[in-house]
C-alpha cells in the first residue's frame, strides 16, 4: 500500500497494529544517491568502512521506505504479510523546519526513474519526519514563543522589538493601513484582515500598532492559503488573550506532532523491539537512524551503541546468505537472484498469505526497486533460509518459527560490501579482527600494472591486489602460510618498497595523530569553541528512553 | 514550446534560425537551489559577492532554461516572439559522461512543485549538455580507445589486459560459454549473443577468447535494450576489423554530438553575439557559463574576462529598473510587478506578436516560474523600458530599436541583490568603488541590539547596520558628511571598538594572506601537487574560439 502525507494519519493505527502483531518486519530504502564505495579498500576495518560511508553518504536522502510485516499463523502454518511503501520527503513549510540542502547522484535518480519512481508524488506528497535534534529545536522554538507571549500578557506589556526605520517606499503602505484601521475602529466588525505583505512590512505594521493603537487593537498573523496575513481585532481582556495564546500553542504542538510523520513508524518498531530484516542493510540502517532518529555520530563505537540500543535485533540477509550453510548452495546474493535460488530445491518457502488485498505483493508483481516490494522479497528470502535451518535441524516449522536460536549466528551482523573475509559490523559486540599477517603494503613505480605485482609475488602463489592509488596497494597472499617467506625474500627489493600490513597501518595512525594534534591546538577562540562543542557528546545509553519521553511529552 | 530530449534535434534548426533573426533574446532559469544570500554582507564588493555566490551555489543545477527570441518588424512596428522552455538534465547513460552529484534545496524543490514543475519529465526526458571540460574528456576517451583498437589491428595483436584469476563461482558459467562457442563454430550462424552477465564476467569471457579461441572468433560488446551483451562472431579479416572499428568510432562521435545537447543553443547565442536580457540575471548568468560552457574560475577577473568574451552584450532588467530614469517611476522590481508597472502610463509596451502559435506566450498565460514564461515577461519588461528611453529622447520606435546607444548605461551590468549603493558586476570593465568613508566596523558586547547601535550613533543621525555576527557589524551613516565627526567622537569609547571600514578591511586582508601563506607552504608532496595544478590555469582570451574549434572538430 502506498503511503503519502495524504493517507498517513488514517493508516497509522493499522500499521502500528501490524508491527505489533508481527514476528518480524523487513525493510528496504531507496536513496537520492549511494556512492559509498568511493575510497573503500578491501582490507579496511568495519570502523574505517563506517567512517568513509558516513562521510560519503550523509548528505543523501531516503526517498522511499518499504516496510513488510510478517505475522506467523501457527494453526495454518503460514505467514500473513502486509506491505507498505512510504514516500518520504520533508517540505520546509514553516520556519521551525530546517530547509535542508541535500545531495542527489545523477545515476541514482536515473535508476529510480527507470523503475517508475514518481518524483512528483515524492516532492508533492512525501511524508514529513523529524529526528530527535530537529524535533527538539522545533519544540524549543514554539515553547519560547509561547512563554514570551504569556509573560507579556501577564506583565501587561507588549513583546518589544527594536524599532525599525520606516523606509520611503513603505510610507504609503502604512498610511493606507492607518486609514483601514481607523475605519475598522469606527465600524462594527470584530476583526479585519490587512492587505498581504512581506515579513518586513508586517513588522512595520506591528510597530505602528504599538506606537499609535496601543490601547485599541490587537494584531495577529495567521496562515491563509499558504500566505501569512495580518488580522486586526479590538483589544481583548487579559483572559481572552491568554486563551488565544494557549489555543495557538496547542495547535502548534499538534502541527509538530504531524511533522514527526514517518518517524512514528520507526518509534513503533523500537517500542516493540521487533526483529528488523534487510538485504545488504548497511546504508538503509545507517540512514534510518541518521535521518529519522538520531544524527549519526562520528564515533563508530557510539554509533554501534546507539543503534543496538534502538534496534536490538537486526538481520542482514546478504550476510546470512554469504555464510554457512548457504554460501555454497547460493550462486548469487543479488536480491532477485537470491529469491530465485530459494524457490528451488533444497530450499522451500513457507506459505505466504496477503492479509489485506490492498496491502500486499506477490512475487509475480515484479516491482523491483519499489521499496515496499523489495522489502517483501527480502522477507521471503529470510523465511526461505530460516525454514532451511529448521529442516537441517529436523525441526517442524512451528518449532523453527517459535524460537530465534537458529538465527543467532547471523543476528546483528551488517554485511559490508567490498571487504575481504566476509567482514561485518557486529552491532552487539566487538568486531572480529581477521589476521592480516599475509597482507603487505607495496609502493611501486606508476607504470606498474597488475601483472608486475603478480610477477613479483609469483614464487609465493597467487595474490589479491587492493589498489590504494596508482603507485601503492595492499597485496594479500592466497597461500597465507607463505607470508613469512615472501616478506624475507622481497623486503629488500629494488624499485619498490614492501612493508607488513601492521607496520604500514601503525605508521598511518601515527601520521594522522600528529596531523590531528597540529590542527587541534586550541590557540584560537574559534577552535576552542569547536572543541567545547565536541566534548558535549550526547548521552547514548538511554537513546531509546529519550526518544520515548519526548514523544510522550509532545503528544 | 516545451523542449526535451525527445524533440530537441528536430526543433534545433528552427531555434537557431529564431536566434539568428532576433534583435535580442531573453532568458530565465529554474534551479535546484538558490541559497546565495548566506553570508553576503551589504558592504561587500562585487568580487566578494562573486566568490561567496560561487561557493554557495556551484553544486546546484539548472533544471529548466527559458529562452524567448524577439524579432523586430520595422514595417509593422511590432516584435515577433518565439519562446522555448527547455528541461535540462543529464543522465549518466554511458561511462564517458560524469555521474554528477548535485545539491538540491528543499525549499526550491517545494517552490517548483507548487508551480507545477514536472520532475518526472525532467529526470526522464531532460536534455543533456556538456561543458568544455567534460566534452574534452569524452572526446579523449573515445579517441584513445579507437587508436588503441586500430593499433592492435595493424600489429595483429589483441588489446592485452592483465589476466585475471577465475573465481570459483564463475567456472560453471565459463564452461557453459565454451560449449556455446563450440556449437557456434560448428554451426552456420554469422554471430551469436552470449548470456547477459556483469562486467567482470565479460572480462573473463574476453580472457577465455584470447587464450582458447584466438584465431577463431571475435568478441564484441553491444548495448541491447539497456544491457551490455557480448556477441561472438567468426574472426574477420584485418580490413573488415578496421571498418568495424571505424564505424563504431563514428557512431560514438555522433553520440557525443548528441550529448552536447542544450550547449548547442548557447553556442548559437555566442556565435551570433546576441544581446542577452535577463531579470536579476546574476545566478542565471553564472550557472549558464559554469554548467554548460566553461567551469567558473575561482578568480573574479578571470570570470569577467571569460563571460564578456563569450557574451559581449548582457542586460539585467533588475539593474536597469533600479536606475534613472526608472527608479522613481517603478514601485517594485519584482518581475510580475515590474510588468504591471510597465503596462501603465507613462510606460507603453510595443506590440508583441506570437510568430508561431505553438511557440509563444501571452501575458495572460500566467505561468509564473515556468522558465520560458518568465523569459518572455523579462523580454516585455525590457521592451517597455527601452521604448520609454526612446520616447524621452523623442525617437520614433524604429529609430529606438535600430540602435543600442540608449542602452549603453545599463549594458553588461549585473545586479547584485543585497549590496548597498546599487552596486553591480561590470562585465566590460572595472567595477565602481563607492566611497566607504562613512562606514565603520564596530565590535560590541553580545547583548547589544539594533537600538544600542542606533543610540551610540544618534548624535550623527540615522544609521544603516549590516550585521557580521552577534558582536560585530558594519555601520553606515546616512549623513555621510558626519563621518569624520562621528569617528573623532566615538573612536575611544568604552565597551565597544570602532574602526574605519578601510582599516578593518586592510586588517582582514593581511590576516587572510598570512593564513594562506601558512597553508600553502609546499612542504608535503600532496600540497605541491595541488599548487602545480592551480598554476596550470586555462587560457581565457580565446574562450570563444576554443568552444567553436572544438564544436567544429566534433561534428
From TrEMBL, chains A, B:
InterPro entries: CAF1_poly(A)_ribonucleases, Nucleotide-bd_a/b_plait_sf, PolyA-riboNase_RNA-binding, R3H_dom_sf, RBD_domain_sf, RNase_CAF1, RNaseH-like_sf, RNaseH_sf. One of its GO terms (biological process) is nuclear-transcribed mRNA poly(A) tail shortening. Residues 509-537 are annotated as: Disordered. SUPFAM superfamilies: R3H domain (SSF82708), Ribonuclease H-like (SSF53098), RNA-binding domain, RBD (SSF54928). Residues 429-506 form the Poly(A)-specific ribonuclease RNA-binding domain. GO terms for molecular function: metal ion binding; poly(A)-specific ribonuclease activity; RNA binding. One of its GO terms (cellular component) is nucleus. It comes from the Eukaryota. It holds the Pfam family RNA_bind. Belongs to the CAF1 family. PANTHER family: POLY A -SPECIFIC RIBONUCLEASE/TARGET OF EGR1, MEMBER 1 (PTHR15092), POLY(A)-SPECIFIC RIBONUCLEASE PARN (PTHR15092:SF44). This is Poly(A)-specific ribonuclease RNA-binding domain-containing protein. It comes from Phyllotreta striolata.
